[in-house]
């Protein structure tokens, strides 16, 4: 059995931590957010239905939070210093994600996982990916 090349392992780990991992995790989060829009739910909990008045104005057959598609298409991620930052170019995505304040904001229809309200299945998928990737980098599996 040959000796491991620790310099290569260290270099590969640095690239993985700074770029590969956060990019892959960001893509997984965006895929999960798309699923939330498709399923009209978060963590399997269906979003609150539209009010009768708003549903009539919006018209039949349109999904919740999918009027123009701007909010959905405006959610993206960046990688900065090895961290994933999820953001939106619409001002109202935050209001829908957090919802329910007394100042007339809509009820919460969470789309994006947060530290306070994570998506445990997504977290587990990311942990599983990390474990598999580290096996490949360190153990050369």
Concise overview:
By secondary structure, this protein is mainly alpha-helical.
Characterise the protein shown here.
This protein is mainly alpha-helical. The chain has one domain (6-138). The chain has helices at residues 6-39, 52-58, 70-73, 93-98, 120-138; strands at 41-42, 45-46, 75-80, 83-88. The chain has a two-stranded antiparallel ribbon. Helix 1 runs antiparallel to helix 5 (120-138). The mean pLDDT is 91.
**Helical amount:** 40-55%
- Mean pLDDT comes to 91
Largest sheet: 2 strands, antiparallel
Q: In percent, how much strand structure appears in the residues?
A: 5-15%
Q: What assembly state would you assign to the polypeptide chains in this entry?
A: single chain
**What is the general shape?**
elongated
SSE inventory with pairings:
Blueprint: H1 6-39, E1 41-42, E2 45-46, H2 52-58, H3 70-73, E3 75-80, E4 83-88, H4 93-98, H5 120-138
Antiparallel strand pairs: 1-2, 3-4
Helix pairs in contact: 1-5
What attributes does this structure have?
single chain, 141 residues, mainly alpha, two-stranded antiparallel sheet, 4 strands, elongated
